[in-house]
Specification:
heterodimer; A: 1 helix; rod-shaped; B: 6 helices
Chain lengths: 39, 224
């Protein structure tokens, strides 16, 4: 596989990992806010 | 929660996505490194920085707890130490990946590798100590005192030891000569990444403390 293609795939995987972490944090944030509202 | 806070979170999401793309497509290939291995610096350095920042927050919260005996300060200290440990592990993993590409082995007993491993053990012991003491007040006091002692070793292990001994590790961003030997586009991406990772730490830390506050209120409700 040419190096340019490899770097594209590594970047794509890194973006997907970050998107996963980000949306998980948003989900957690929403859950914590709901718990705070129930207090 | 206000719209402004949501906006900040989405801004952070976009910011770090742009940093990832910048690290691979905007920053040039570093000279003197095998292939594209040096690009890991855009993630490894901010992770190490956030770990140091988290241990500083842990120290401040521990000192506050020793003064106020407020359980939320203990929760703040534990949250910061947990995040510090997490980002230290990430920095170790990314460093090992770099070491494998550059030097052919994941672990080379380099002073910097050994010092981060010792630091990891010191902060892992912080959590072992917390688990071993059931009484909350006593746990808070002991772990706060331990955190102060642990922090004393941190600057020594992170900044002093790796500079005393010969190391395979590349120069730090600001090298011993007081200059930055890095292309300007690389510096731009690295600074953007440092800002993004600091924002991520701040978000995770706030989330963890908010959760601890809810747990404490519930505990007090049950006891009351």
């Amino acid at each position: 596989m040419p190096q340019a293609d490899s770097i594209f795939w590594v970047a794509a995987v890194a973006v997907v990992i970050w998107a996963g972490v980000f949306f998980y944090c948003l989900h957690l944030d929403r859950k914590v806010r709901e718990l705070e509202e129930h207090e | 929660m206000t719209d402004k806070r949501w906006l900040l979170k989405w801004l952070l999401g976009v910011w770090l996505a742009v940093v990832v793309l910048g690290a691979f497509f905007y920053a040039p290939t570093a000279r003197g490194f095998k292939g594209e291995s040096a690009r890991i610096v855009f993630f490894h350095v901010p992770q190490a920085w956030v770990a140091v920042l988290a241990f500083c927050v842990n120290l401040i919260a521990s000192l506050r707890f020793l003064r106020t005996r407020d359980p939320i300060d203990d929760a703040r200290a534990a949250s910061a130490a947990g995040l510090g440990l997490l980002f230290s592990v990430l920095a170790t993993v990314t460093g090992s990946l770099f070491a494998k590409v550059m030097w052919g082995s994941f672990w080379n007993w380099d002073p910097r590798e050994v010092s981060i491993a010792i630091l990891l053990l010191i902060y892992a012991a912080y959590f072992a100590l917390r688990q071993a003491v059931p009484d909350e007040e006593r746990r808070g006091s002991l772990s706060a005192a331990y955190a102060v002692l642990a922090f004393v070793t941190m600057p020594f292990l992170v900044f002093v030891v790796p500079r005393i001994y010969w190391s395979l590790h590349p120069d730090t961003l600001l090298n011993a000569r007081g200059s930055i030997d890095m292309e300007s586009r690389m510096v731009q991406v690295l600074v953007a990444s440092l800002v993004g990772f600091t924002g991520l730490f701040s978000w995770l830390y706030t989330l963890s403390v908010r959760l601890a506050r809810i747990r404490l209120r519930r505990q007090q409700g049950v006891e009351g």
